[in-house]
Amino acid sequence: MKFHNKPYTFVELVELKVTNLENSLTFYQEVVGFKVLEKTATKALLTADGQTALLSIEQPTDIIPTHQKTTGLYHFALLLPTREDLGAVLRHFAETNIRIGAGDHLVSEALYLNDPDGNGIEIYSDRPDTEWTWKDGYVGMDTLQIDAQSILEAGANTQWNGLPEGTVMGHIHLSVKELVETEKFFNALGLQVVTPYPGALFMASGKYHHHVGLNTWNGVGALAPAENVVGLKAFTLVFPSTEELNAAIDQLKAIEVEVIQEDGIFTTKDPSQNKIKMIVK
After folding, report:
1. Model-level pTM?
2. What Gene3D superfamilies does the record point to (predicted)?
3. How far from 29 is each of 114, 115, 159, 162, CA to CA, in Å?
4. Which residue in 12, 71, 49 sits closest to 235, CA to CA?
5. Is 220 exposed, middle or buried (0-12, 13-18, 19+ CB in 10 A)?
6. Which strands sit side by side in the sheet containing 35-39, from one edge to the other?
């Protein structure tokens, strides 16, 4: 998981709004395999290793479902330590009749599903970065059919006991209203395009295949959802040093993006009003 530690900038905590906390908690524990780190009557922090919160699910009092195509979360992506772990997850989904999608992206192999509110989830394992192909500064990615049998065979001797301890938040993929200004925004945060795709950009710190995905597949000019609609509340971007965090803040201000402090944490919003918390660890 070298791309999710210093010297890289990476996503750690994703915060979601849900319509029913208990239903979501059951799903995220029994289907996805999270453990509860902290819980109140309206909010739960979920973890894979018992220490680091990767997902927050919260039930606001006035929350409503979404029925329209807006900006916001496309999916959050949980990166497993090994292909064997992915095989164990795939077998678990098959045995429990969980409906999923899947894709071989050349750099990774991924499974896709939705939570009870329709929030998108990816669970994936990376191929070794020594096997990724780069040309003109871009990494080769595609969406092909997975070799499910090979993945199952890889995990044949791996027991599914929930998310393994080494699981991290591999990336977040956002629905946005346009790409030009959004690219400039994430450039200011220190991310660069590593793969352009029809209607989408994949951006990373260093030479990862992506820490942030962006797409306009809900329509160019898509509106941001109302505050009381289910979906993404915020996500946390971890910077490797205070110097790099301060540089990002200065670069955001230079392109006239507002940065504020909330409870001692710097926050900002991308051009599509997706909220980002910026910290150093």
Report:
1. 0.97
2. 2,3-Dihydroxybiphenyl 1,2-Dioxygenase, domain 1
3. 14, 11, 16, 8
4. 12
5. exposed
6. 35-39, 43-47, 53-58, 10-17, 231-239, 275-280, 265-269, 259-262
Domain boundaries, the chain: 2-280
Contact 202, 235 (CB under 8 A): no
pLDDT digits (tens, 9 = 90+) for 176-223: 999 999 999 999 999 999 999 999 999 999 999 999 999 999 999 999
Angle at 35 between CA 34 and CA 39, to 5 degrees: 115
State which fold the 2-280 domain adopts. Answer: 2,3-Dihydroxybiphenyl 1,2-Dioxygenase; domain 1 (3.10.180)
**Chain Cα centroid distance, residue 49:** 17
Residue 239 binned pLDDT confidence (cut-offs 50, 70, 90): very high
Q: Of 190, 204, 203, 188, nearest to 251 (Cα)?
A: 188
The identity of residue 273, as a single letter, is Q
* Torsion (CA) 271, 53, 201, 205 in degrees, nearest 10: 100
Tell me how far apart the alpha carbons of residues 95 and 46 are, in angstroms, rounded to a whole number. 24
